[in-house]
């Protein structure tokens, strides 16, 4: 606690020490790499430096004390979870979790005559990423789809972080695609802090054309989007069914009539042939 307060005080009173903020991304449960961005243009020996990493104002994450890693002042949750790459001036935070998100400050002091002097500071903001599952479309009702009726669908994705921006329904048919934005229900697991999202769609059943419906989950500019497997629907409308009935009904009647006429002609020819044979025999 005293160490943190001392360094914050040093940063405030020393002119010319400006901390640049860097954005760092790491996947959940992977190692996060937090660099000090220290050029060390003077080629100072690490044995003449004290290096501190702290999160926020009070949590000491890591300390290198004149060339030796020191664990006495570390916050409990960072014990055995950090190590320093001395060549790259980079801190490795092992098994990074969502609770580790936030701003980190690297402070480097040089041992000089008298009190150690702050010669470098840098800041970075750690963002944790957890991959969402591929969005999946499900029908919310059972039974056969019929034309001019409503189609109820849901699209869901789970286990991701951070919170997504938007879910869009994509409806494609006849070389055209339109997007529909519907309300997105978002829930966060109290323990894992991961998000689950669901959106629902209620539209009239498309008819007389093949229609593909998919949903797109937009995660943000840096993370991109995920899209579901398309749901294909092709329903013949009642008018088309009526056309089929109106067409095939007369056709079947004509076929039956032709068959009857052919049967009558064949039967008549047989009777004529039998009569001629009887006359020949009588003669």
Head-to-tail CA distance between termini: 139 Å
Low-confidence stretches at least 5 residues in length (pLDDT < 50)? 1-18, 239-249, 273-283
Which structural class should the secondary elements be placed in? alpha+beta
Topology pattern, helix = H, strand = E: HEEEEEEEEEEEEEEEEEEH
Spatial sequence of strands, sheet with the most strands: 1-9-8-3-4-5
Taken as a percent bin, the fraction of beta residues is 35-45%
Radius of gyration: 39 Å
Mean pLDDT: 80
Count of DSSP H/I helices:
2
Number of strands: 18
Instruction: Please estimate the helix content.
Output: 10-25%
Largest sheet: 6 strands, mixed
Q: What is the overall shape?
A: rod-shaped
Question: What are the main properties of this structure?
Answer:
2 helices, 20% helix, disordered C terminus, alpha+beta, 283 residues, disordered N terminus, six-stranded mixed sheet
Question: Mind explaining what this structure looks like?
Answer:
By secondary structure, the chain is of the alpha+beta class. Helix content is 20%, strand content 42%. The chain is built from two helices and 18 strands. A six-stranded mixed β-sheet has the order 1-9-8-3-4-5, covered by helices on one side. Strands 12, 13, 16, 17 and 18 form a five-stranded antiparallel β-sheet that branches.
């Amino acid at each position: 606690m005293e160490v943190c307060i001392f360094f914050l005080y040093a940063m405030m009173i020393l002119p010319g020490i400006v901390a640049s903020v860097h954005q760092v991304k790491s996947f959940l449960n992977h190692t996060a790499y937090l660099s000090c961005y220290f050029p060390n243009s003077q080629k100072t020996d690490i044995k003449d430096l004290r290096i501190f990493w702290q999160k926020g104002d009070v949590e000491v994450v890591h300390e290198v004390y004149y060339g030796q890693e020191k664990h006495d002042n570390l916050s409990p949750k960072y014990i055995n979870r950090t190590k320093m790459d001395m060549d790259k001036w980079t801190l490795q935070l092992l098994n990074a979790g969502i609770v580790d998100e936030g701003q980190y400050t690297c402070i480097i002091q040089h041992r000089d005559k008298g009190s150690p002097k702050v010669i470098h500071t840098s800041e970075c903001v750690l963002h944790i990423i957890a991959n969402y599952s591929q969005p999946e479309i499900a029908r919310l009702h059972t039974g056969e789809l019929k034309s001019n009726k409503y189609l109820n669908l849901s699209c869901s994705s789970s286990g991701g972080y951070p919170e997504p921006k938007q879910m869009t329904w994509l409806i494609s048919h006849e070389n055209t695609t339109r997007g529909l934005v519907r309300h997105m229900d978002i829930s966060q697991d109290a323990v894992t802090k991961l998000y689950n999202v669901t959106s629902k769609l209620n539209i009239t059943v498309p008819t007389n054309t093949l229609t593909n419906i998919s949903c797109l989950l937009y995660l943000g500019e840096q993370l991109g989007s995920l899209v579901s497997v398309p749901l294909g629907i092709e329903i013949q409308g009642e008018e088309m069914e009526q056309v089929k009935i109106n067409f095939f009904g007369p056709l079947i009647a004509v076929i039956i009539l032709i068959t009857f006429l052919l049967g009558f002609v064949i039967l008549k020819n047989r009777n004529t042939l039998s009569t001629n044979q009887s006359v020949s025999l009588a003669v």
